[in-house]
Amino acid sequence: SQTIHQWPATLVQPVGSPLSLECTVEGTSNPNLYWYRQAAGRGLQLLFYSVGIGQISSEVPQNLSASRPQDRQFILSSKKLLLSDSGFYLCAWSSGEGYTFGSGTRLTVV
Amino acid sequence: SQQGEEDPQALSIQEGENATMNCSYKTSINNLQWYRQNSGRGLVHLILIRSNEREKHSGRLRVTLDTSKKSSSLLITASRAADTASYFCATDKIGTDSWGKLQFGAGTQVVVTP
Q1: How many other C-beta atoms are found inside a 10 Å radius of the C-beta of residue B31?
Q2: Could you give the CA distance from residue A94 to residue A76 in angstroms, rounded to a whole number?
Q3: Which residue of chain B has the CA closest to A10?
Q4: At CA B101, angle to CA B44 and CA B73, rounded to 5?
């Protein structure tokens, strides 16, 4: 069966520090992968999506970047975090019948 | 702006009652999906309804879709305390660059009291 792993679950980082969040998928090949951010009490905003290795599309200009070094690995990064980067980050993959989400990473930038 | 917008923003009911929430969207879609999120957790896919479908059932869930009105509803029958969660609609827009990207509404927060 397909599973998606996302870590860490929580992260507290100082302003200006780097960030690396990792997401891996098991049980499927060549998945469409997505990074979303959810602000408190809000819906999800699509940040990046990828249809294959090395193929990244950005939805909104921001302080973040994404990479897909392997078929089932999707990484969200930042060189220098801002306070506004705080939020709940969710990785997802699409089967065509709906998304499967990871458990999310709550990032607090202090 | 968000493609899907849920109504109401919050809903409080008692166990055994039905809960209905609505979603409106703006552009033509391939499908519309409903998700559930427990506090602080990831989203769980509940049901997908395609643009050529009008109604779909899954257990105690019933989803309708009216493409002429660009709206959908989610009905939870015989609610339980465990149904307490936020519910989101998400649309998969028609478009050559859509790539299966979903746009989410802000959600309806449902509280079911025993």
Answers
A1: 21
A2: 18
A3: B40
A4: 55
Helix (H, G, I), strand (E, B) or coil at B17: coil
- Whether B25 shows a pLDDT value over 80: the answer reads yes
Residue B82 three-state SS: helix
CA distance readout (Å), A32 to B45, B60, B72: 16, 30, 26
Pick from A43, A88, A94: which is nearest to B104 by CB? A43
For residue B1, the model assigns a pLDDT of: 40
B20: closest CA of chain A, how far (Å): 19
Q: Report d(CA B24, CA B10) in Å as an integer.
A: 16
What is the enclosing helix (H) or strand (E) of B103?
strand B102-104
CA separation for the pair A92, A30 (Å, rounded): 13
SS3 B41: coil
Length of chain B: 114
